[in-house]
């Protein structure tokens, strides 16, 4: 082997070693797995503009980021409830009553303006609200603008489905606080769940949890 | 001839090593295109290593620009730090996608880089930052904020000592 070749090999060896040394080190943070739970929010506008909002957040990330945000009522992953907002309602007592009660329908309100149903079944709390008044107002406003005959009002329907364990975790912080981080932790342990569905004349809103890292 | 070959090899190896070092953290990329008469077109590609090095150099500047920036960004630093650390766990993920009549906004991580794309009728913006750089920026700003606080404490202490004399 002549001197030139030896020199070239030496330089090449140094270069290769150097590149290995400089290659980005394996990330210290543990990579996410397929079993990680994600919270998805999708808002689809019904109007001609067709606005669509899709938000996907890993629950683990939300658990870590929330305690770092200290603004207004949000501190250390907990939201402070103003005593004026709950007035004389003892949320904890109501929650205890619901938790210990058997499965069934607890509240049913039917009126010209709203229908409200609150029920519990298989460890899940269901809240279903149908707002008729809002729909009538929206339809009247639309018709007044067009000057046409009255169109069929689209009711606003809100469906909330929350595991009781999540509700427990949410109220675990203290009297005037909601523990969001504990609720998220309970939520991720629960598995795939459809949480909120809102359908009204303007938008469709869906909030759910699954292990996919993108909206379907 | 042999000496020249050795020098050329040495230079080549040094250049390759330097290039590898400069780009090993990736590239911070900003592209802005305005689609209107006289609209600006900005295309910036900066090695992420240069950002870290630049922040180190900025700390030595007499006007303390980094300390001032750190003081302004102080409330958001803990969130930035945690967010950057968590983003490392999701090298390929879609976080936000908003589409309306006029714009499409997309925020995602692609191969360990945070990508923000805004596609509008009259403007297009693409920003790409390696997640590691975000961590680095948060660390540097936190250091700067800490040293600003220490300097302030020393100054106050000196004033107090001078007044008591």
Any chance you could write out the topology, listing elements then pairs?
The complex is a heterodimer of chains A (216) and B (165).
Chain A: H1 3-22, E1 38-45, E2 52-58, H2 59-65, E3 74-75, E4 78-80, H3 83-86, H4 91-100, E5 104-110, E6 114-121, E7 124-131, H5 132-146, E8 156-163, H6 164-170, E9 177-179, H7 180-190, E10 193-199, E11 203-210
Helix pairs in contact in A: 2-7, 6-7
Chain B: H1 2-23, E1 27-34, E2 41-47, H2 48-58, H3 65-73, H4 77-87, E3 93-99, E4 103-110, E5 113-120, E6 123-130, H5 131-164
Antiparallel strand pairs in B: 1-2, 1-6, 3-4, 4-5, 5-6
The number of strands of chain A is 11
Uncertain regions spanning at least 5 consecutive residues of chain B = none
Rg of chain B, nearest Å? 22 Å
Global geometry of chain A:
extended
The number of strands of chain B is 6
* Quaternary organisation of the protein chains: heterodimer
Question: How does this structure look, described?
Answer:
The complex is a heterodimer of chains A (216) and B (165). Chain A has 216 residues and is an alpha+beta fold. Chain A has one domain (3-210). Chain A is 34% helix and 32% strand. Chain A contains seven helices and eleven strands. In chain A, the strands form two sheets. Chain A has an eight-stranded antiparallel sheet. Chain A has a three-stranded antiparallel sheet with strand order 3-4-9. The termini of chain A are far apart. Helix content of chain B is 53%, strand content 28%. In chain B, a hairpin with a 3-residue loop joins strand 3 (93-99) and strand 4. Chain B has helices at residues 2-23, 48-58, 65-73, 77-87, 131-164; strands spanning 27-34, 41-47, 93-99, 103-110, 113-120, 123-130. By secondary structure, chain B is of the alpha+beta class. In chain B, strands 2-1-6-5-4-3 form a six-stranded antiparallel sheet. In chain B, helix 2 (48-58) runs parallel beside helix 5. Classes of the chains: A alpha+beta (216), B alpha+beta (165). Strand 2 of chain A pairs antiparallel with strand 3 (93-99) of chain B.
């Amino acid at each position: 082997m002549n001197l030139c070749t030896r020199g070239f090999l030496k330089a090449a060896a140094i270069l290769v070693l150097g590149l290995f040394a400089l290659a980005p080190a394996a990330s210290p943070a543990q990579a996410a797995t397929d079993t990680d739970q994600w919270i998805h929010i999708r808002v689809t506008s019904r109007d001609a503009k067709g606005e669509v909002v899709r938000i996907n957040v890993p629950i683990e990330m939300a658990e870590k980021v929330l305690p770092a945000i200290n603004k207004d009522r949000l501190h250390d992953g907990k939201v402070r409830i103003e005593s004026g907002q709950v007035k004389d309602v003892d949320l904890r007592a109501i929650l205890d009553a619901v938790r210990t009660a058997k499965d069934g329908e607890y509240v049913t309100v039917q009126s010209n303006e709203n229908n409200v149903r609150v029920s519990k079944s298989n460890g899940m709390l269901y809240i279903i609200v149908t707002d008729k008044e809002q729909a009538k107002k929206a339809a009247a406003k639309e018709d007044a603008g067009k000057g046409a005959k009255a169109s069929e009002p689209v009711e606003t329907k809100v469906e909330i489905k929350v595991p009781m364990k999540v509700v427990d975790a949410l109220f675990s912080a203290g009297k005037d606080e909601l523990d969001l981080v504990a609720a998220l932790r309970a939520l991720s342990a629960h598995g795939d769940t459809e949480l909120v569905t809102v359908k009204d004349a303007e938008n469709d809103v869906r909030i759910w949890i699954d292990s996919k890292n993108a909206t379907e | 001839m042999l000496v020249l070959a050795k020098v050329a090899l040495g230079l080549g190896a040094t250049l390759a090593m330097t290039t590898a070092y400069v780009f090993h953290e990736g590239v911070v990329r900003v592209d802005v295109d305005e689609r209107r008469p006289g609209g600006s077109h900005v295309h910036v590609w900066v090695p992420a290593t240069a950002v870290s090095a630049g922040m180190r150099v900025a700390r030595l500047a007499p006007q303390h620009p980094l300390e001032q920036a750190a003081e302004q960004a102080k409330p958001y630093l803990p969130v930035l730090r945690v967010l950057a650390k968590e983003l490392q766990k999701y090298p390929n993920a879609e976080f936000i996608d908003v589409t309306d009549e006029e714009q499409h906004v997309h925020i995602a991580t692609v191969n360990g880089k945070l990508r923000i794309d805004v596609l509008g009728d009259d403007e297009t913006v693409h920003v790409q930052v390696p997640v590691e750089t975000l961590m680095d920026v948060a660390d540097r700003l936190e250091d700067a904020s800490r040293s600003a606080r220490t300097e302030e404490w020393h100054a106050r202490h000196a004033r107090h000592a001078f007044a008591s004399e």
